[in-house]
Amino acid sequence: MSSVNNDKDHDLYESALEFLREENIKNAPDLEKIKFLKSKNLTDQQITKALNQVKSEQRQDNRDRKSTRLNSSHTVVSRMPSSA
């Protein structure tokens, strides 16, 4: 029976992650996100874990994008002298 509960909890948690990753949800106030997740029967612990995970992913995405912008803006193009 606990396997069924664990699977159900895992599915619920994964659904919460998908919800929190949605583009139109990312910038919503945390209190609104929490209220919605509680209405879906997630525990406080699951909600906190999901919020922390998604925020961590967003910070990493921001660092990756910043790094990519810096690298692409410093591209040096060298030209070989043309022989006439």
From TrEMBL:
Pfam families: Pex14_N. Residues 69-84 have a biased composition (Polar residues). Residues 56-67 have a biased composition (Basic and acidic residues). Transmembrane segments: none annotated. Residues 10-52 form the Peroxisome membrane anchor protein Pex14p N-terminal domain. Residues 51-84 are annotated as: Disordered. This is Peroxisome membrane anchor protein Pex14p N-terminal domain-containing protein. It comes from Saccharomycodes ludwigii.
